[in-house]
Amino acid sequence: MSDSKVGPRPDIRFELLADDAWLIAFDTPDASIIDPETNARVHALAECIRTAAPGWLRDLVPAYATLAVFFDLGTTDAQAVRDWLGTQCVDDVADAQADASRAIEIPVRYGGAFGEDLDAAAAELGIAADTLIARHGAALYTVAMIGFAPGFPYLSGLDPSLALPRLATPRTRVPAGSVAIGGAQTGIYPRESPGGWRLLGRTPIRLFDPQRASPSLLAPGDRVRFIAIDDDAFARLERDA
């Protein structure tokens, strides 16, 4: 079941993702790139629904240009949810810019054993390693979505001059906390896992802890800035993590 129009908004589509879930999709200028304005609308819509807190709401899962809305079939049905969304939130925030709920600094030890791809990545880009670090740390990133692994943030806002293709052969082991570039994005591996992104450094901060009230340190819509640290600071922060 698909609905290509939401009232006067032909740029927003509803698709029934499951018996208990709608997928709200925003048209983007170019589906092959991440559009920050579209992603901001996704987060604004999620915040509007979350604030309204309808009794049937079970979960919200934002992505780059879509929002999955899960509802309780025991209290409502798909058409009622569709009608509520179309009249309560979608039109109100379709052109909104989502405000960041938080701004978070992530300390990173760049290079060496902490970021084994740094030198090769800098050489491929035709810049010095220190320049790569400076440019990577100068940007203010947005958590576009959480995916791949629990707590893994896909961060938009990477300086276009730092975009790099993923490794031809992914590693079987990437250390937890690794800060990396994959295409036009940067991200942080929350736990040890396979991966094919270029490793620039590592943070001692724990991104995902199931024992915390909010297991994921970062949430969609958060702003992130990377702060370069030295070995001593890394060791101290790792002890305190």
Overview of this structure, please?
The protein has 241 residues and is of the alpha+beta class. The protein has two domains: 2-93, Gyrase A, domain 2; 103-240, Beta Barrel (Cyclophilin). The protein contains five helices and 14 strands. The protein has helices at 36-52, 78-93, 118-125, 129-138, 231-240, and strands at 2-3, 12-18, 21-26, 57-62, 66-71, 103-110, 141-146, 153-156, 171-174, 178-182, 185-188, 193-195, 198-202, 223-228. The strands form three sheets. It has a seven-stranded mixed barrel with strand order 6-13-10-11-8-7-14. Strand 1 (2-3) and strand 2 form a beta hairpin. Helix 1 packs across helix 2 (78-93). It is elongated. It starts with a strand and ends with a helix. The model is unreliable at 4-8 (pLDDT under 50).
Could you tell me the radius of gyration in angstroms? 20 Å
Question: By CATH's scheme, which homologous superfamily of the largest domain applies?
Answer: Cyclophilin-like
User: Looking at the structure, what is the overall shape?
Assistant: elongated
Q: Which structural class do the helices and strands define? A: alpha+beta
- N→C terminal distance: 47 Å
Identify the CATH architecture of the largest domain: Beta Barrel
> Low-confidence stretches at least 5 residues in length (pLDDT < 50)?
4-8
β content, as a range? 25-35%
**What is the highest CATH level, the class of the largest domain?**
Mainly Beta
